[in-house]
Amino acid sequence: MSWRWRGVPFDLLLAAAGVSLDLLMSGQARLGELAPQYTIVPLALLVGVPLGLVRRRPLVAALWLAGALVLTDQMGAYSSNTAQMLLLVAVGLTAYRERWRSIAVAMVAAGVATAVNLVDPGAAFSLRTGLYCAGVAIFPAVVGGYLRGPVGELEHRDVTPDVLLAAGGLAYTMLSTWTSWHSGPQPAWMTGVLAVAAGLALGVARRMPGLVFLFHCILVVLADTYLPQVVSTSLVLLLIALGVFAMRVASWGWTAAAYLATCLLAGVAVVGPDTETTFFRAAVVCALVLTPVAIGRYLGVKQAAAAAERLRVRESTRLTVAQMRADQLAERERIARDVHDIVAHHVGAMVLRAGAARYTAPDGPVADALTDIRETGHQVLEDLRGLIDLLRDPDRQPGLLADPNDVIRESAERMTAAGLAVDLELDRGTDHAPLVARASAARIVQEGLTNVLKHAGPGTEVRVRVSADRHGVGVEIHNGRPPTTIERLPSSGRGLAGMRERVRALGGTLSAGPDEDGGWLLAASLPAARSAS
Q1: Among 116, 255, 446, 462, which residue has the least CB neighbours within 10 Å?
Q2: 391 vs 164, residue with greater confidence
Q3: Contact, 176 vs 229, CB < 8 A?
C-alpha cells in the first residue's frame, strides 16, 4: 500500500462519524426547526464529510466548516449546530499541526462564522457577542497549541491507554446525553461541544490529571444547574477523572482534597429538593467515591513498583557494563605491561650497545649511523611509553613529546641521513592548525618516508609538502622512480592501512598509488574539525 493511502480508513471513519453526528442531532430537533426533509442527508454530508480531512488538511476543513456554518444558518437548518461543533475541532487541530498564519486564518473564519450563527437578522452585534465569538475561536486554538508542546510527558510514551480513555469517554457521553442536547435553554451545539469535550478530556487525564479533574468538577456544577438530565453522566466522568488523579498524583494531601470535593459534588448531584438526607445515604456516597480513589492508588503503586524495577534493571545493566569495562581495562594493562617488558628490554639493549659502540668507533658515517640508532631507540622507548599509557586508559588524550612540525623536520633529516633526497616544504600556517590534525600529519610523514625508504631505497628523490588553510591540513609525499633495482626491506604491509585508519578517524581522506612516471604519490587531507558521520 502506498504511503499516500495510509490512514485513509481512519479518515473515512471520521467522515462517517461526522455525518452520523449530524443525522442524530437533526433527528432530535423539533419539527419547526428542520429544513425541508430532502435537505437533511445532503446537509449532513456537507457538514460531516470535512471531518475526514481534519487530520491531513485541518485548515481546509476549518474553512469548509465555517462556510457550511454560515450556509446552514441562513437556511435555518439544524445542521448548523453540528457545523459549529466540528468547526471548533478543526480550529484546534489547525493549531496543533499548522503554522501561525494558518492558525490565524482558521480563528478569524471561526469567529466570523460563529457571529453569523449567533446574531439574529436585524439584531445589533453586542460587545458580549463579540467577546463570545472571540472566545469560541481562541479556546480551541489555545488547547491545540498547548497539546503541541511538551505536555506532561510520561515515562512510557505508549498512547494506547489515552486513546482508550478518550474513546470510551466519548462513546459513553454521546450515547447517554445526545437525546437531551435540545432540552436546555442553551443552543444544542453548545451542549454538544461540552459533551464531546467531557468525553475526550479523559484522553489527556493521565498527562494533566489536575486540570481534567477540575474541568469535570465544573461540568457537574453546570449540568446540575442547566441540564439535570445529564448530571449522572457528568458524575460518572468525574469519578473516572478522580481515579486517574489518584493514580497519577502521589500526594495524599491532594488526593484527599480531590476526594472531599468529589463527595461534595456527588452529594449536590444526587440530593434533590425532595430527597431525605440520612447518614446511611451519605456513607454510601462516600464509599462510592472512595472506590475510584482506591483503584487509582493501587494502580499508581503498581506503576511506581514497575518504574522502580525498571530503574533497578537499568542500574544493574550499567554496573554490569562498568564491570566489563573495568575487566577490559585490567586486561589492557596486563597486555601493556607484557608489551613494555618485552619490547623495552630488546630496544633498551639495542640502545645501550649502539651507545657503547659509538664511543669505540671512529668518526665518520659509522659513528653517525650509531648515533642515529641510539637516538631512534630513545624515541621508540618514549613512543612506547605513550602507547602503553593509552592502552591503560583509552579515554586519555595522548600527549605529544615534541612539536609536530619539529617531528616532521626531524623525520626529513633522519631520512636524508639514511640516503633519501628529501625536499621538505612546510607551510608556516600549520602552526595555527588544530593540534590533532598536526600530530596526525607528522605521523603520516614519518610513515610515508619510511615506506619510501623501504620500497624505493636510498637515492630516491622525495618531495614532502605540508600545507594548512581554514579547512584543515594537507599532506603530500611524492617520490620519483627508484634510481636502481633494490632489495626491498621486510614490511608488514600495515603502514598504509594504519594511515588510512588515522585519517578516517579524523573525518579526512587519503589516497595513495603509483603515478605515470613510475613513482608513488600519497596525499592526505585532515579537516580542522571532525565531520559528523
Answers
A1: 116
A2: 164
A3: no
